[in-house]
Amino acid sequence: MASIGEILLNTLSADQQIRESATTHLETAANEDFKQYVVMLCQELNNEQSQARIAAGLALKNAMTARESVRREEMSTRWMNIDAATRDQIKALVLTTLGTQDVRAGIVTAQVVAAIAAIELPLGQWEGVIRDMIQNLSSTDNTNLRQCTLQSIGYICETIDRDILTSQANSILTAVVQGARKDEPSEAVRLAAIGALYNSLEFIEDNFKREGERNYIMQVVCEATQSQDLEVQVAAFECLVRIMQVYYEMMPFYMQKALFGLTVQGMRSPHERVALQAVEFWSTVAEVEIDQENYRLEAIDNGEQPTHTNYNFAKAALPETLPVILELMTKQDEDDDEDDWNLCMAAGTCLSVTAQSVGDACVAPVIQFVETNIRHAQWQYREASVMAFGSILEGPSQELLVPPVAQALPFLIEMMNDPVIKVKDATAWTLGRVSQSLAECIKPEVHLQPLIEALVRGLDDSNRIVSNCCLSLMNLADQLQGEQGRDSATSHMSPFFNGIITALMRITERNSNEAFARTSAYEAISILVTHTARDTFPTISALSTSILDRLEQTIAVQNEIVGVDERNSHLELQSNLCSVLTNVIRRVGKDISPIADRIMTVLLQLSTAASKSSTILEDAFLAIGALTTALESEFARYLDSFAPFMFSALSNHEEHQLCSIAVGIIGDVCRSLGPASASYCDNFMTTLLQNLQSPVLHRNVKPNILSCFGDIALAIEGQFAAYLDVTMSVLAQACNIRAAPTDYDMIDYVNGLREGIMDAYIGIVQGLKSSDSNLLAPHLPHLFEFMSTVYNDPERSDALLRSICGLLGDLAESFPGGDIKNLLMSEWVVQCLKEGRSSRQNSVTTKEVARWAKEMVKRATM
């Protein structure tokens, strides 16, 4: 039998069969006796003579941590079930192993220490681990021990909740700053210390607020940017980026004294990794200042004193930083992989966020750079000038941008003929930005034909530029649709629609999806169909036939597919085809009727062939939902055939997105069939109520279920009385769910849940309005109490305010005789309707609903 060392080494084998066999052996050992397993791994890790130490350390770490929260909890429980004496023995041994002569084994051991600490510290165990490691740092000359100890502290700081470590912030900070100083003889120790400092920045807030300590920290980090060791330089600039993110408000003094010069110098570094981090610093400055300005304006809109200050560092530094950024954008290489992040890309991104931050200040110097280089003999300068031009189209004022964009547009169209692919790709991207943000510069009678011809030629060029050509065409379709939107008889794009669709369909016929060209083409077809005018319907009709032909072909060959990659490609193709079909149905509406039978047959075949977990079911269901809405009552003839698939999806709680779409289809069916859907509602309501009680179903489906109750009530009107009491009981339970002030995920969920509750109440009130509103009378006090609670919640959304106003109006209309006068004259109701009508933050729709509701309430309380 192989020894533990041999088995561990086999887990690193290049031979897949050997590797999998060894992994299985280790998993079996862990499951049979976990205590013996971790002790054995720990001893192997500590054995200076073993060749399998690193493998042992990785296995030990992986036995205690996982990405998935459920799996992580299982591992934590398994570790804590080991007796305390054995755990203490393992912890002592790994702390000793940090000082091993093999630094690679020491680094893995640092990860093991952090994995154990991540389990025990939150449980109030191993509270002395930080103290013991800091003592190691102060009582040894062993460089490996100091390096690995600092790395372990860094890993712990990265993984443990900040509140757990705050009490030890002083000692941690002292240790890591001591190791990061410029007089530290070991650059490896210094690097580990800077990494630990990076990971500890958030919980040393109190230290950072003290000027003396802050000055020393900043001095140490700034000095590290000048280290002769490349890794230390990179880590120091990474640290400065994080400091700017976390402590922007405290940076004015340091920006003036050191950071301006250090980071501009860093951007000019011959080492790309250093330059990348220096560029990232200025991107971060711009991003933070965008947020600061938004916070400031929001406070002013709310009539509050702004608590956030925008120091405009990006604008002040622009004369120094912008020339360097533009220069870096020219550092393009013909062989650069477009998927690899490089200095040129980083500089372009930095320019884009800087433009959003500084606005008009960047326009003149960038335009000068463009004018100088747009016809440059070297393609790198042409590409940089076009990218720079596109990068400043968001942020500066439209008034300042329109003249240069209008002047540049003919040159940009001409540059789609550039002999260099990268220049054409950048040009297509910039044209997309123009068509998205400054479509008014595109004069249809002058620019549209040459622009579309250039983009269509680009579709037949390299796969690399197809995505950006498609993006430009999508933006044109969106921005240049007819004056009446979807109801327009024609549009500026109509004469080109058939040619564009033909060119895009050619792209979709390609066997490969290199650079996502095929996917982009299908997406462009979907968007063009969505925004086209009615005079293109004959082309859409032919398109729908082609899409159905292709879907039928994919179903015919489905059983012949072998291999994971081929199957994934096939599913992606079916998904793209379903997406186009869905948009065609939504666009033509009732006109889809002549081919509805064929569409439904194909979609049911897709659903039959798909597995329960296949994403293609979601795409097929979305298309069926669109068909339901388009056909209205005519969809009834398909319902018996489709119902088994729908109820299967509703009971498939593991695939919550599919389940959610199925819930939406119930709403579509009820809206389309109206009162005729009543015969199906017993099954609908039973299934939906069961789903609400499911402990397995993802919580995000439940707001949609509540909203669906409103759709059912609105459709079957007075017949909903049979379900009223149980529905109102369920809604009352949902009303009681609250979120903690700092639990932002829960706040979002509760807002979504409340929107679903409001949709349900609105549908029920409107549905019963025509029959017997008095059925609602026993529920009104609770309903008004819930609305008051939601209105007074500072986290409520604009959508919730609109729903409250709408429901108040519906209730006033349902009880016009003064029966609920006292409820409607509550102080909060008056305030709510006033805020809905007048607040600057509210959407136009919310204001309109609030005005209507006020009139209804006025009539009901006279």
TrEMBL record:
Q: Which GO terms describe its molecular function?
A: small GTPase binding
Identify the domain of life: Eukaryota
Identify the GO cellular component terms for this protein.
cytoplasm
The main location class comes to cytoplasm
**What keywords are assigned to this protein?**
Cytoplasm, Protein transport, Repeat, Transport
Q: Per the database record, which ranges form the Importin N-terminal domain? A: 22-100
The protein in question is named Importin-95
Question: What species does this protein belong to?
Answer: Linnemannia elongata AG-77
